[in-house]
Design goal:
mainly beta; 14% helix; three-stranded antiparallel sheet; five-stranded mixed sheet; single chain; elongated; 144 residues
């Protein structure tokens, strides 16, 4: 069973050359509605990212991005909407195999390339969704 991502933007890896490829991707209203269901949100009114996709000197695949999103979550105490905004920079590095000798890269930002590539294509939309999901509060309305 193949699960289709709600915000899928495929990038053929054979299109990448020496220079990084720039992409701007935006979710449409249907995609935002599906993602709101996935994350149990009232709504997502904006989800977009500017991406630079290229290879590092070590031939690892690196995605640098700027994510902007507006959404509403349910307050877990009152069940009322809470407006949230995301404006963040991120970097994800995809390696061909785990190598514990990689310097200057946080382990959390490393991903195995084979886990993300299907038929030579990388879903950069789902990468943006994963970065967005990091910003969704699990218990909105409860202060730390």
């Amino acid at each position: 069973m193949v699960i289709k991502n709600e915000f899928s933007r495929l990038l053929a890896l054979d299109q990448l050359h020496q220079k990084p490829m720039e992409r701007t991707i935006k979710a449409n209203s249907d995609e935002m509605n599906l993602l709101a269901k996935r994350f149990d949100l009232f709504k997502i009114s904006k989800l977009e990212a500017k991406l630079s996709v290229g290879y590092t000197a070590q031939r690892d695949l690196e995605i640098k991005g700027h994510l902007v999103a507006d959404f509403q979550q349910k307050n877990v105490k009152t069940l009322q909407p809470i407006a949230k905004a995301v404006n963040k920079e991120f970097v994800v590095t995809f390696v061909k195999e785990r190598d514990h000798t990689i310097d200057n890269i946080e382990e959390d930002s490393l991903e195995l390339l084979n886990n993300w590539v299907i038929d030579g294509e990388l879903d950069i939309g789902e990468i943006v969704v994963q970065e967005f999901s990091d910003e969704v509060d699990l218990y909105p309305g409860i202060e730390d």
